[in-house]
Amino acid sequence: MSELLAGAYLAKGTIGNVGTPGAPIAAFSLVVVPSQHSVSGTVVITQAVKGADSHIVVQVKGKIFSTGFGEFTQVVSLQGQYVQSVPPPGIGSFLAEFNAHLAIDNAWNGKGGFGYWNHAVENVPVAAAKELKSELV
Questions:
Q1: CA 27 to chain centre
Q2: What is the rounded CA–CA span in Å between residue 87 and residue 50?
Q3: Are 74 and 63 in contact (CB under 8 A)?
Q4: Which Pfam families does the entry link to (predicted)?
Q5: Can you tell me the distance from the alpha carbon of 45 to that of 128, in angstroms, rounded to the nearest whole number?
Q6: Which residues contact 36 (CB under 8 A, 6 or more apart)?
Q7: What Cα–Cα distance (Å) separates residue 20 from each residue in 42, 72, 85, 91, 104?
Q8: Which long-range contacts (CB under 8 A, 24 or more apart) does 78-82 make?
Q9: What is the C-alpha to C-alpha distance for residues 73 and 107, in angstroms, rounded to an integer?
Q10: How many domains is the chain built from?
Q11: What is the 3-state secondary structure (H, E, C) of 88-108?
Q12: Among 8, 54, 68, 71, which has the minimal tally of Cβ within 10 Å of its Cβ?
């Protein structure tokens, strides 16, 4: 069983133009298990503009693979669903899709993008949090 989580670590950071007024930012906190090529955790999308899209929490899962070459040594894909409220004058809510793609170095810095209901954010910085790897096993 211990081999199943071999090398697992916590990755935290942001996707988006942090510091740009009104820009949507996706903050991630992920458990990465390289031996299983798996990633799972939480993404919180925030935006300074008031409304239904100003704070979204998404449980995600995805894949991580090594590229073996170049500046970006890993690629990551994330998918998840969250409850999206219908904007007024509509009433109700539905399950909306979230997805993200990252091209990163071993320190979790690079480029990427993410998409969620009626929004697509492309070619933005991916930045690791200051305290990146806390070993789990």
A1: 6
A2: 12
A3: no
A4: DUF1842
A5: 16
A6: 4
A7: 23, 24, 25, 32, 21
A8: 78/28, 78/30, 78/39, 78/43, 78/102, 78/114, 80/43, 82/56, 82/57, 82/58, 82/116
A9: 10
A10: 1
A11: CCCCCEEEEEEEEEEEECCCC
A12: 68
Question: Exposure of 132 by Cβ count < 10 A (0-12 exposed, 13-18 middle, 19+ buried)?
Answer: middle
Domain that holds residue 44: 2-128
pLDDT tens, residue by residue, 21-48: 889 999 999 999 999 999 999 999 998 7
Residue 137 domain-assigned (yes or no): no
In a domain, 94, yes or no: yes
* Per-residue pLDDT at 131 exceeds 80: no
- CB-based contact 130:7 (threshold 8 Å): no
Residues 52-92: pLDDT tens digits? 678 999 999 999 999 988 899 999 999 999 999 887 888 99
Q: For residue 63, give the amino acid letter.
A: K
Q: Is residue 136 situated within a structural domain? A: no
Whether the upstream peptide bond of residue 89 has omega within 30° of 0, thus cis, is yes
DSSP secondary structure code for residue 136 in this structure: -
Residue 85 tokens, joined: 């409220």
Residue with tokens 């810095």: 109
Report helix, strand or coil for 1.
coil
